[in-house]
Recover the amino acids of this structure.
């Protein structure tokens, strides 16, 4: 049947999915995610102690695979070792510092964002218009490179500060009307 | 080498010293001071430069290091976010630092990340594997700076800078400044030196000035003032003494010069005298003379020269040769030539020249020039000019006259010929050439007499010429002689000759003008001939003046009338009158001819001897050019004999008429115009016209029926010319017409008679009406029998005993396959294909017995077909010979039908006896009447044993009813269906037979059923096997699909598994945190049990609570558990869906909820679509249960959903953020359940559309697909479920596949059941 599927695909003039492409894309995004943390300042009370870990949570289906662990291995941010946790979208979220929202949660964005609202959590995703819908940093692939759409309002509201060096790679966006963060 | 270079150096030095010494004293002093100052300044400059180098190097290092640090910090972010472009832009800022040649950013793995400027070569990079810091090499500085972010080394920055170039710039600036200072200092030193040197140099300069004045003014009375230093004072004293000596020598020299001047003045006076003599000589000559020296200055000229050239006085006075020449050139006809000559002559001073000069106004000068010599040396050139205009003009006039003469000679209308004394042609003009037929130039130099005089006259003419040359004859005489043209024709020319003499009066040739008189002579000749013709004419010719007086009669007149010319001249022709010709005839004659007309007539005249004679005459007037009648001409012929003959003829005619009048046959004569000229009494009887009525009428019009007129006139036209015709000299039967219009047959004998040059016809006509009627009766009888013969369908042929065919009819020709024409007259032997021997023997038998013989024969006709003929031969006598009449009837078809019947019977038996099929014939009572031998081989029964049994014996009891119904239906309707049934073999096994039949008429036993049955047991088994195989294949394909989906499903399961794992890890960690709490709890419990102090435990508990952050755990642990539960549920759902999907299902259709089936399919292939598309389901809210093979339909849905996802993936491509939509819709539509799967993909290209359901159709490369997907879907939906599958696609919009399944089982489903 696999062959028959291929042929059907051929008949529709489609081409087979490229499983390695997602991996390459997400290993890039994993590295960027860790580096992004390095350019972010959290308030000191966001951490239990100076050696407490900086937790990167992945909510929804994990698109990274092992790439994120590899990117985070032996990395520190302001002295905090980096830790990765995968989280269910439908259960209450634990305390994290960076929250990556998978595309699978595209339809549940308001709930996810609401769960971390006000907390010093850097919300990152590659869901379209993430930053406009109240998220902070949207990872956008452009010319094979990862760029950001940053909603500075959301970032500041969470008490975070992004390095100006990051902003160089960012398009600043404002939340769209009717978005969850609009007062 | 060494000595020479030393020598060179020394020489250089000496030269420098010498040059220095040559300078003025004042400059020497200044230069010495300047050199000393410059040297001191140079030394101090070098010292300053060395100090600057040290400072520069320190600054350069600091700058470069600072720059690298800043850059390293800047490129942190680009490195972190993998933005080589951004890094490159940052590096581009280095442009503002020109000393930085290049910079690169490397990743930790030393891969180039970004660069600026020229790339560093691999060898350059290899020099710094782990290098950090600054290094100088080959005039360039290399600096490596690590890029560190949060303790992680992100990469390294390498900078290459050109410090040497930078230093060079700095150094040059310094040198420039130094140079300026040096120049300034030197300038100041020079000014100072200049002021100081005066003190030293002023006395020496004064001495020099005095010496210079003496040299310029030759005033030796000057003396130099003495002052200053010791050395200079001595020098001044010596100088003054020398001046005094020079002054004394000057006075003596002046006296000697005065004496010399006096002697020169005397000599000059002597010279002036001799010049004046020369001048007078010049003026007295008639020629204009000009003398010019070698520098082209005018040294001498005379007044005559000035007059000739009309040179004004003032211009002469200037003595400027150039202006003079210009003035002269203006007057010349060809100034360029003049200039060229003059220049040429001046270039050759020794040359002499004599030529002519022409003026615009027509004057002509003769010019002589000779060089002017003093001793042997040329000092100039003498030109003399003489006016020869008058002489030249006279000469020209003469030539013009000569031209005119020549022109006249050429255009003269007569032949002009000049011969020299030897008779050679010197000149001949155009007309002459034309007459002679030569080109003028061809004749030049030719001997006239040899070339143009005919040979027989040559000697005579030559003699005359010689006498002319000798002066014995005068040239003015005329001669007429023939000349020969080039073409050899002769022309008569009349010559006038003139003698040509030279100045001395000697005869040197002749000038002849000749006139071509050939034509004139020819006319004269003709006239003579004409006159002779008249003289000798056989007719009498009389010419009278207008008054009728005879001027001429020819000899014939004299011969006829006996009157001579002399006798009748001046007489009137009426002397011949006999009185027989009426006077009015003469009056008419005169009227006619005086009016200018021609009169013809006959006279009955009297000869001189009194004899009467007839003459015919033509008399006409002769007119001159103006139309006036000058003479009358009479031409007359004696016709007396002719007149006598005419009378004799008339007598004969009368006799002929008497004969014809009494003839029985009609005699008719027709003249050359086609008119009746004779018509006898018998003709009157026959045609009903009287002779009066008929004569003069056109014969054809009179007696021939009108329809024959055109043919008669055509024939008659030929007859008129030739006297020939198809009817002439023959006896013909024709149709004629009587006066009363009745037509009747006549016999006509026609002959031609030529009378007076015209053809007449004589016809003898006989009325043959009665004879014709008898003939017609016979003909009718013949026609009747002929028609009978031809119309007969029986072939009839009469032939002789020899076999020669005498007569035959169309039917006979048809039988033989030939044409009637071919048959008649041919011999039986020639007719191919006949069984000639049999035919002939039958014919002979008929002849011998004299009675009719019957026989059947076969023959092959012309087209090769065999024919059966039933024959009858009848002997009969015809024209005294024995003939046979053959009657033939074609019985071929009858014979063929008989043969076909016999053949088909044989064939049926052959087929049935040898067929593998079971063939039997069953009558209406169901009794087998016939069984083929194959019953033995197929079923093991003897066919004979089966005959007579009922047909259902041996048939499976379950099938009997069905067969009975079909049999009855067949007898009733005549339609036999194909049936399958089981029948027992003799060995007891059951065989499946497939039977078909036909209703046949078996005559005596009435209608029967012919049954043909085939053993299909093996085929059935093969079909069943194939169906099973297909099923297995399908199942295998499904498993394969699941295998392919497994990766996706595994991924689906993996996600919840991952976060379940993470949560468990978290729970494990927090549990470790909680262990101390549990320990404390234990302690509390034990304390309580032991009655210990609980309060003592409060503090440790508080500490512990703070340490483990109980609040945090209380919130987090339930969350982790909830997360895990959710994950487990999701895994369960997927596993369930997979189980449902891969369930092989039942082989029978079972009612199923297709909404659920679709959901299951969507779940298991979620990984195939979730990245590219959203799935929207729009299900029938109350789905009916559809009887179907759920497992196979699942496969169809899967194919379509995956196709949709892949189509969208193709359209969406890399844009992960723009998903498509897959819409799955189900609806009940009456008795149908409809499933639609729509995508928003690119659509199906038009050329592919008709083929997508074809098996093995794929657009993929080889090995990428077998082309079964949609073909399978179609097979499942259409073949197995009796449903439909269709699609609707729009390129760029998407594709919708629609499946319709029947809610009730249908016929189409039957094969599927059977296959199962």
């Amino acid at each position: 049947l696999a062959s028959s599927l291929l042929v059907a695909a051929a008949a529709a003039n489609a081409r087979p999915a490229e499983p390695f492409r997602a991996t390459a894309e997400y290993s890039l995004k994993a590295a960027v995610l860790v580096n992004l943390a390095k350019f972010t300042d959290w308030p000191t009370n966001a951490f239990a102690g100076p050696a407490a870990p900086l937790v990167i949570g992945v909510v929804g289906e994990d698109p990274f695979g092992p790439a994120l662990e590899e990117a985070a291995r032996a990395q520190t941010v302001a002295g905090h070792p980096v830790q990765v946790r995968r989280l269910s979208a439908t259960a209450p979220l634990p305390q994290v510092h960076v929250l990556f929202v998978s595309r699978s949660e595209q339809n549940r964005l308001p709930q996810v964002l609401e769960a971390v609202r006000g907390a010093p959590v850097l919300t990152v995703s590659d869901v379209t218009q993430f930053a406009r819908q109240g998220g902070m940093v949207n990872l956008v692939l452009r010319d094979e490179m990862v760029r950001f759409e940053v909603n500075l309002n959301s970032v500041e509201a969470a008490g975070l500060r992004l390095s100006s060096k990051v902003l160089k790679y960012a398009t600043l966006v404002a939340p769209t009307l009717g978005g969850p963060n609009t007062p | 080498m060494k000595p020479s270079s030393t020598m060179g150096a020394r020489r250089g030095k000496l030269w420098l010293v010498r040059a220095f010494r040559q300078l003025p004293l004042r400059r020497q002093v200044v230069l010495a001071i300047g050199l000393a100052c410059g040297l001191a300044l140079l030394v101090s400059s070098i010292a300053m430069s060395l100090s600057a180098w040290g400072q520069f190097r320190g600054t350069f290092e600091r700058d470069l290091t600072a720059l690298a640090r800043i850059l390293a910090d800047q490129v942190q972010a680009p490195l972190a976010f993998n933005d080589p472009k951004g890094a490159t832009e940052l590096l581009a800022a280095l442009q503002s630092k020109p000393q930085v040649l290049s910079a690169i950013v490397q990743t930790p793995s030393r891969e180039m990340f970004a660069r600026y400027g020229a790339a560093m070569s691999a060898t350059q990079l290899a020099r710094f594997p782990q290098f950090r810091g600054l290094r100088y090499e080959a005039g360039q500085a290399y600096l490596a700076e690590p890029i560190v972010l949060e303790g992680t080394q992100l990469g390294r920055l390498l900078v290459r800078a050109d410090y040497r170039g930078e230093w060079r710039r700095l150094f040059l600036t310094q040198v420039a400044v130094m140079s300026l200072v040096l120049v300034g200092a030197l300038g100041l030193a020079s000014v100072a030196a200049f002021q100081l040197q005066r003190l030293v140099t002023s006395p020496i300069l004064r001495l020099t000035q005095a010496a210079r004045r003496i040299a310029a003014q030759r005033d030796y009375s000057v003396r130099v003032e003495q002052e200053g230093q010791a050395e200079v004072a001595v020098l001044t004293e010596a100088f003054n003494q020398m001046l005094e000596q020079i002054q004394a020598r000057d006075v003596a020299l002046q006296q000697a010069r005065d004496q010399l001047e006096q002697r020169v003045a005397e000599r000059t006076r002597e010279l002036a005298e001799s010049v004046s003599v020369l001048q007078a000589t010049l003026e007295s000559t008639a020629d204009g003379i000009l003398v010019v020296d070698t520098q082209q200055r005018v040294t001498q000229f005379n007044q005559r020269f000035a007059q000739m050239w009309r040179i004004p006085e003032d211009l002469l006075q200037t003595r400027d040769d150039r202006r003079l020449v210009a003035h002269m050139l203006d007057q010349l006809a060809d100034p360029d030539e003049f200039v060229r000559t003059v220049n040429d002559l001046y270039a050759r001073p020794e040359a002499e020249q004599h030529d002519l000069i022409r003026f615009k106004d027509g004057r002509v000068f003769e010019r002589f020039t000779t060089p002017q010599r003093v001793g042997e040396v040329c000092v100039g050139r003498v030109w003399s000019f003489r006016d020869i205009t008058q002489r030249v003009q006279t000469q020209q006039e003469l030539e013009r006259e000569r031209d005119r003469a020549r022109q006249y000679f050429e255009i003269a209308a007569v032949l002009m010929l000049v011969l020299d004394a030897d008779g050679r042609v010197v000149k001949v003009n155009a007309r002459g050439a034309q007459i002679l037929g030569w080109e003028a130039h061809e004749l030049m130099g030719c001997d006239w007499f040899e070339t143009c005089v005919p040979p027989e006259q040559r000697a005579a003419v030559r003699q005359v010429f010689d006498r002319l040359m000798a002066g014995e004859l005068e040239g003015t005489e005329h001669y007429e002689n023939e000349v020969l043209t080039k073409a050899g024709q002769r022309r008569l020319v009349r010559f006038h000759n003139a003698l040509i003499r030279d100045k001395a009066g000697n005869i040197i040739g002749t000038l002849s003008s000749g006139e071509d008189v050939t034509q004139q002579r020819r006319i004269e000749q003709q006239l003579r001939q004409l006159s002779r013709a008249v003289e000798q004419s056989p007719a009498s010719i009389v010419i009278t003046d207008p008054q009728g007086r005879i001027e001429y009669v020819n000899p014939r007149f004299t011969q006829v009338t006996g009157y001579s010319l002399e006798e009748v001249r001046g007489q009137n022709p009426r002397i011949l009158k006999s009185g027989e010709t009426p006077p009015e005839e003469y009056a008419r004659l005169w009227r006619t001819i005086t009016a200018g007309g021609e009169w013809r007539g006959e006279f009955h005249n009297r000869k001189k001897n009194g004899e009467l004679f007839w003459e015919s005459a033509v008399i006409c007037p002769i007119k001159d050019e103006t139309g006036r009648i000058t003479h009358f001409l009479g031409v007359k012929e004696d016709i007396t004999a002719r007149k006598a003959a005419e009378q004799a003829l008339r007598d004969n005619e009368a006799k002929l008429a008497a004969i014809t009048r009494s003839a029985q046959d009609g005699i008719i004569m027709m003249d050359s115009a086609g008119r009746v000229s004779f018509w006898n009494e018998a003709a009157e009887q026959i045609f009903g016209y009287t002779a009066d009525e008929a004569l003069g009428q056109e014969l054809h019009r009179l007696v021939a029926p009108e329809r024959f007129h055109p043919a008669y006139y055509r024939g008659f036209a030929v007859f008129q010319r030739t006297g020939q015709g198809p009817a002439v000299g023959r006896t013909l039967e024709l149709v004629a017409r009587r006066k009363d219009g009745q037509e009747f047959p006549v016999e006509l004998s026609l002959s031609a008679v030529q009378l007076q040059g015209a053809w007449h016809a004589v016809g003898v006509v006989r009325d043959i009406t009665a004879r014709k009627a008898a003939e017609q009766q016979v003909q009718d009888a013949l026609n009747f029998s002929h028609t009978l013969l031809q119309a007969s369908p029986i072939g009839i042929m009469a032939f002789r005993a020899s076999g020669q065919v005498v007569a035959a009819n169309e039917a006979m020709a048809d039988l033989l396959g030939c044409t009637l024409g071919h048959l008649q007259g041919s011999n039986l032997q020639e007719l191919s294909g006949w069984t000639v021997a049999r035919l002939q023997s039958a014919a002979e038998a008929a002849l011998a017995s004299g009675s009719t013989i019957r026989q059947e024969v076969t023959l092959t006709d012309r087209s090769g077909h065999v024919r059966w003929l039933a024959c009858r031969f009848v002997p009969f006598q015809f024209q005294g010979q024995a003939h046979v009449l053959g009657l033939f009837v074609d019985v071929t078809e009858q014979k063929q039908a008989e043969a076909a019947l016999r053949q088909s019977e044989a064939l049926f038996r052959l087929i049935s006896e040898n067929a593998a099929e079971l063939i039997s014939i069953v009558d209406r009572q169901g009794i087998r009447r016939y069984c083929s031998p194959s019953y033995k081989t197929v079923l093991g029964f003897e066919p004979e044993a089966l005959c007579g049994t009922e047909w259902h014996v041996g048939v499976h009891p379950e099938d009997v009813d069905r067969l009975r119904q079909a049999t009855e239906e067949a007898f009733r309707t005549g339609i036999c269906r194909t049936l399958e049934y089981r029948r027992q073999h003799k060995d007891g096994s059951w065989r499946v037979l497939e039977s078909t039949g036909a209703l046949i008429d078996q005559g005596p036993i009435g209608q029967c059923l012919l049954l043909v049955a085939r053993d299909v047991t093996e085929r059935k088994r093969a079909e069943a096997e194939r169906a099973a195989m297909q099923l297995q294949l399908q199942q295998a394909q499904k498993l394969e699909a699941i295998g392919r989906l497994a990766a996706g499903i595994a991924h689906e399961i993996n996600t919840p598994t991952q976060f379940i794992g993470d949560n468990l890890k978290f729970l494990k960690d927090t549990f470790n945190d909680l262990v101390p709490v549990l320990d404390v709890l234990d302690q509390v419990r034990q304390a309580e049990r032991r009655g210990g102090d609980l309060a003592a435990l409060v503090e440790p508990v508080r500490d512990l609570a703070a340490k483990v952050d109980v609040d945090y755990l209380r919130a987090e642990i339930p969350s982790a558990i909830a997360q895990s539960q959710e994950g487990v549920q999701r895994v369960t759902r997927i596993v369930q869906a997979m189980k449902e999907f891969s369930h092989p299902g039942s082989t029978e259709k079972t009612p199923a909820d297709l909404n659920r089936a679709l959901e299951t399919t969507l779940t298991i292939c979620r990984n195939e679509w979730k990245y590219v598309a959203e799935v929207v389901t729009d299900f029938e809210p109350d789905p009916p249960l559809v009887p179907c093979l759920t497992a196979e339909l699942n496969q169809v849905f899967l194919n379509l959903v995956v196709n949709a996802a892949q189509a969208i993936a193709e359209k969406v491509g890399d844009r992960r953020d723009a998903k498509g939509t897959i819409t799955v819709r189900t609806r009940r539509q009456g008795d149908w359940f409809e499933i639609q799967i729509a995508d928003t993909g690119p659509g199906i290209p038009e050329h592919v559309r008709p083929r997508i359901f074809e098996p093995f159709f794929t657009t993929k490369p080889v090995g990428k697909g077998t082309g079964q997907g949609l073909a399978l879907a179609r097979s499942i939906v259409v073949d197995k479920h009796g449903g439909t599958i269709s699609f609707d696609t729009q390129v760029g919009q998407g594709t919708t596949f629609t499946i319709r399944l029947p809610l009730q089982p249908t016929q189409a489903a039957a094969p599927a059941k059977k296959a199962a």
